[in-house]
Amino acid sequence: MAKEIIHTDAAPAAVGPYSQAVAVTGGKTIYLSGQIGLEPGTGDLVSENFEGQVRQAFANMKAVVEASGGTLDNIVKLTLFLTDLSKFASANAIMADIIPQPFPARSTLGVASLPKGAQFEVEAVVVI
After folding, report:
1. Which family does this protein fall into (predicted)?
2. Residues sharing a CB contact under 8 Å with residue 101, sequence separation 6 or more, in sequence order
3. Domain at 59, CATH number
């Protein structure tokens, strides 16, 4: 898979750890379902703590990416869902710590609620 990061000064710069766009040639495309901060063994939220839920959701996403034969480098698009957009900076910092550069394209949405009372969800598009 060849991944090309697209950037133009004619559009606003990224306000977080993501690229404006990513072009991909070759490979297999995998669309991951959203992951929330559930512990795999129990199916319960890892904690009530936002940061803990974000880290667990990314760990769950990583496990699915790896099960598909990929790595975090193969992610070309992420979508983040937050029930409280005031925690956007915290989610950005955790994502920047976990996802390797160059960053994938990304959208972030504020939502009223998520399954099981989660505060954060992440979904991904991966090309291997």
Report:
1. Belongs to the RutC family.
2. 17
3. 3.30.1330.40
pLDDT tens figures, 19-47: 888 888 888 888 899 999 999 999 999 99
Residue 116 sits in which domain range? 2-127
User: 21: helix, coil or strand?
Assistant: strand
Three-class SS state of 104: coil
Specify the pLDDT at position 4.
85
DSSP-derived letter for residue 40 is T
**DSSP per residue, 44-87:** SBS-S-HHHHHHHHHHHHHHHHHHTT--GGGEEEEEEEES-GGG
Report d(CA 81, CA 105) in Å as an integer: 15
The residue ranking higher by pLDDT, 65 or 3, is 65
